[in-house]
Amino acid sequence: MKVLKYLVLAVVFAWFFVGGISHFTRTEFFLAIMPPYIPFHTAAVYVSGVFELIGAIAIWPPRTRGAAGWGLMALTLLVTPANVHMWLHPELYPDVSEAFLSGRLVVQVLLLALIWWSTRPMDAKALPAVVTT
Hints:
The chain has 6 helices and no strands. The chain has helices spanning 2-25, 27-32, 41-58, 62-78, 80-88, 98-119.
């Protein structure tokens, strides 16, 4: 089980690390999928990219893994409006199939499950010790 957990952590890391870098190397793509009602498009793309990178790195140390998991789940939920916007307005994205747009929403739910599972402690020994006096 431990090996599987680390493999899933590696997938989550790669997803967010590559995604975070993409926010800086493919900024125009991310700007194009931003719903019009969200303000400060460029800042939002860069800030979310920074948080993706921070979260990806922070899932490796056991000490920060739990908090990083919660942060990545929150970030994933915060980008949901862009995915829903694309799904509701496929005519704005003629180069992307409607099946792909629908699949993104399913992948997002699976990603949330992978983040949650991979960043939870494996057993009671992994939990912080409680100091009693």
